[in-house]
């Protein structure tokens, strides 16, 4: 106990805790911390996230390149064994990090450095501070989607954004559907808003990134149209839309099979269940998000 206590005292001497008078949101809390700090690199970690011991060294190594403005690590669910949903989310994070972010990182343009584990170059962040703090959407202050917006600002300023798969951060994920859908609603609004903001970036980037951004936004739209067409067929003819069901099912199995092979884990075959969650829950949430972009 004495060793732990003394160790804690030594650590806390190097830390400054800033107590704000009220909950002002993540963005203003970040800005308050940055204004009181002086380091060359800024590490952003969510309060429910645990970092592996080598995360800081691995992220900072990537930041040795002065062209890099931000870098993120790989996210895993620390509570993945809580429920079927947390297991799905853990696999969803693996796919988002090791397919989407990894591919974007090859071109130095990760489109969203996720908040649970992201490092920023202070000199770059300070240049963008005013734009970051005063983000408006339709004349109203925006108080969510900070991670994606800051990443887009970094790219707009000409900095690279990277991904380090070996820098592991374990974060708590929703273990119930209600909390999960609320989270997805916030993320969907942020994605729609900042995708529009970042469209001008695509002109100066690799063709793959254009395809990636178009695919991320057109994919849900095409899926929604397929589902609506299938429902219309069933309502008008009484016959099941086997072609639609077969196509969606085949694409699901291909994606899950590739993930299982790359990760060397058969559990990814179970990610097929996420297609049902996507069709019956996430598509309506995304449609609602698109219709309510101005709601904070």
Describe the secondary structure blueprint for this structure.
Elements: H1 2-12, H2 26-35, E1 41-44, E2 49-51, H3 55-62, E3 68-77, H4 84-105, E4 118-121, H5 122-133, E5 136-137, E6 140-141, H6 146-156, E7 160-171, H7 177-198, H8 207-237, H9 242-263, H10 273-291
Parallel strand pairs: 3-7
Antiparallel strand pairs: 1-4, 2-7, 3-4, 5-6
Helix pairs in contact: 2-5, 5-6, 6-7, 7-10, 8-9
Short description:
Helices cover 57% and strands 12% of the residues.
CATH class: Alpha Beta
How many domains? 1
Number of helices: 10
User: What structural category arises from helix and sheet content?
Assistant: alpha+beta
Identify the overall geometry: globular
- Strand segment tally: 7
User: Percent of residues in helical segments?
Assistant: 55-70%
Strand order of the largest sheet: 1-4-3-7-2
CATH architecture classification: Alpha-Beta Complex
Kindly report the average pLDDT value: 89
The span between the termini is 46 Å
The description of the largest β-sheet is:
5 strands, mixed
**Element order: H for helix, E for strand:** HHEEHEHEHEEHEHHHH
Radius of gyration: 21 Å
Strand-residue proportion:
5-15%
Uncertain residue ranges:
1-11
Considering the chains and any ligands shown, give keywords for the structure.
membrane; Nucleotide-diphossugar_trans; Spore Coat Polysaccharide Biosynthesis Protein SpsA, Chain A; 5-stranded mixed beta sheet; 7 strands; two-stranded antiparallel ribbon; 296 residues; alpha+beta; 10 helices; disordered N terminus
